[in-house]
Amino acid sequence: MLSARKAVQNLQEYHPPLASRGGLRLDFNENVEGCSPRVLGRLQRITSDDLARYPEREPVEAVVAAHLGLAPAQVLLTNGVDEAIHLLCETYLEPNHEVLVVTPTFSMYEIYAGATGARVIRVQCDADFRFPLAKVLRSITPATRLIAIASPNNPTGTVASREELLQIAQAASDAAVLVDEAYFEFHGETVIRDVERFDNLFVTRTFSKAYGLAGLRVGVLTGPVELMPSVRRVSSPYSVNAVALAVLPAALADCDHISRYVAQVKNGRERLGGELSKLGLYTWPSDANFLLVRIGEKHREFVMAMRQRGILVRDRSTDPGCEGCVRITIGSDAQTSRLLAALREIACELELVRKVTA
Fold first, then answer.
1. Is 319 helix (H, G, I), strand (E, B) or coil?
2. Which of 51, 97, 290, 333 could, after both became Cys, cross-link 118 (CB 3.0–4.6 A)?
3. H-helix segments, the chain
4. DSSP H or E segment with residue 160
5. C-beta of residue 306 within 8 angstroms of C-beta of residue 344
6. Residues 6 or more apart from 4 whose CB is under 8 A from it?
7. Cα distance from N-terminal residue to C-terminal residue, the chain
8. Residue among 78, 51, 46 at smallest CA distance from 64
């Protein structure tokens, strides 16, 4: 019988809990408000001819490049950030290479890197999930070919500073340094303009989070002009669908929609963090659209109790260093009020705290 490569056989599968997601979805860091009305308007104007033709991403890449302040040659639209990660692994990794991944973090870095046969080196975050700059620098070897860093990080919400990221890019001159800025809009600090200064720096962004386009699967990979042709060489010319390309300019143009949503998330993040503090439940400072909460040994019961109330949250207790932790996406003001009411009830029900104040 035909067998997959050993590298593939040894991969740990990623199993997102997508089944039965009815209710308030605070488990996947999605935009719970939805996309811009301008996107919906553009969708209504899509014709059968638009769907019958192969998609052309280059004109939209020019729009995205202008939005980011980059040249079109520095920009590649991808089928979500997942494809961007995959392309970098396919472009640069051989089985004798090493990949540094700061854990806990997004699983797909390790999965795509491992599929090439490269050796994945996990660098555990420092205490309180602080970015482990010294550990990363010590882990760089002549075999290091890719370093993947999410900032803000998922599932912790913590960040690596621009200075730390650029220090790594400078120290690992023979490696591709990928900075995943999927949650950039909620943080504001970026290294995306630095791809012009460093010939090994790549930055990804997604339109799944703040822009509310997760269902259309569109992201962007940016990098040095000299290196992007090699990445394009392993990319399908039609990986981004025509519908996503049609609506993306409309999404980018509605700055007010994004600003309102980001402000709402920051307000909700503060409200939720304050309530968790009152209950005595520990959470880490977050620069993303979610909070990671230490529930403790009753984390499974907590997730189930939330589900019984029609609220979905994500158990992250199997991530390195996240034992007993649950991740909660920030919703709208009304959704946050509903979440807080359920949180107080469950805290009493499961005896997570001795006394709950209203």
1. coil
2. 97
3. 6-9, 37-44, 48-52, 58-68, 80-92, 108-115, 133-139, 162-171, 228-233, 242-253, 255-278, 299-308, 333-349
4. none
5. no
6. none
7. 63
8. 78
Tokens of 49: 């001819």
Local structure of 122: helix, strand or coil:
strand
CB-neighbour burial class of residue 196 (10 A; exposed 0-12, middle 13-18, buried 19+): middle
pLDDT, tens digit, 9 for 90 and up, residues 134-161: 999 999 999 999 999 999 999 999 999 9
Q: How many Å apart are CA 331 and CA 171, to the nearest integer?
A: 39
What is the pLDDT, as a whole number, of residue 357? 47
DSSP 128: G
User: What torsion, rounded to 10 degrees, do the Cα atoms 178, 180, 184, 188 define?
Assistant: -30
**Among the listed residues 286, 289, 288, 271, the one whose alpha carbon sits nearest the alpha carbon of residue 343:** 271
Report the candidate in 233, 226, 236 with the shortest Cα–Cα distance to residue 91: 233
Q: How far apart are CA 315 and CA 325, in angstroms?
A: 6
227-275 pLDDT tens trace: 999 999 999 999 999 999 999 999 999 999 999 999 999 999 999 999 9
Residue type, 119: R
Contacts of 241 (CB under 8 A, 6+ apart): 55, 79, 216, 217
- C-beta neighbour count of 326 within 10 angstroms: 25
- Distance from C-alpha of 352 to C-alpha of 356, rounded to nearest angstrom: 9
Please state the pTM of the whole predicted model: 0.94
Amino acid in position 115: A
Q: Is 290 helix (H, G, I), strand (E, B) or coil?
A: strand
Q: In the structure encoding, which two tokens stand for residue 103, read together?
A: 């854990």
With contact defined as beta carbons under 8 Å apart, do 106 and 157 qualify? no
Residue appearing with tokens 């269902």 = 215
In this structure, what token pair is assigned to residue 235?
A: 């990319």
Tokens read off for 279: 């209950």
Strand (E) or helix (H) holding 219: strand 219-222
Place of tokens 């980011």: 68
> From the CB of residue 155, how many other CB atoms can be counted at a distance below 10 Å?
24
Average pLDDT over every residue of 84-97? 97
- Structure tokens that stand for 34 in this block: 């939805």
